[in-house]
Amino acid sequence: MKDSKELIKQYSERIRKEVQEDIRIEYEDNCIILDGDKEELFITIYDENEARVYWCNNCFIFSASRNLFTSSDTYGEIVFEGKVTEQNLCDLVIDLLLHIKDTLPIQISEEEIGKIPSGYDTIKNYYIEVSGNKNSPLYVQSSELLDSYLMK
Predict the structure, then answer these.
(1) pLDDT at 134
(2) What residues does 52 pair with on adjacent strands?
(3) What predicted TM-score, i.e. pTM, was given to this entire model?
(4) 31-33 and 41-47 strand pairing
(5) φ and ψ at 139, to 5 degrees?
(6) Positive or negative CA dihedral for 106, 111, 146, 10?
């Protein structure tokens, strides 16, 4: 199991390589801040199987333990419902960052599509209208794997 310093290094290298080489990255505990003092875009890495991306007061949850969450854990959050493993978690986070960097959310709507196995939380798809460099809406289909973020 990797410790938090190793995970921060792994994520930081991938972000510099794939998102933006000259991006300003700051570190705070298990958090990578991608926009300096604004703190509108940052990642919190809990372990090899869970990370959260925070973007303009919105939280995207990626967790291998998704089915243990309840509605109070996920209220107001955008939850990825696909399979999360230590092999694909960094890819999922990088993919999302590529779609949301240099954008601002205008409107977020959600569509309930089912319940998790315990019945204690709802599975949803999300539609996110953004402005900025990408003037297309972002459709987050929570049940898909790496193709979760589709620009329409």
Answers:
(1) 56
(2) 44, 61
(3) 0.86
(4) antiparallel
(5) -105, 115
(6) positive
More confident residue, 103 or 1: 103
Number of domains in the chain: 1
Q: Which residue did the predictor score with more confidence, 39 or 53? A: 53
In which domain, by residue range, is 55 found? Answer: 4-151
- The residues near 109 (Cβ < 8 Å, ≥ 6 apart) are 126, 127
Q: 43-74, pLDDT tens digit by residue? A: 999 999 999 999 999 999 999 999 999 999 99
Tokens of 139: 């459709």
Q: How does 55-86 read in b/e, with b if 16+ C-beta sit within 10 Å?
A: beebebbbbbebeebeeeebeeebbbbbebee
What's the token pair of residue 97? 């960052």
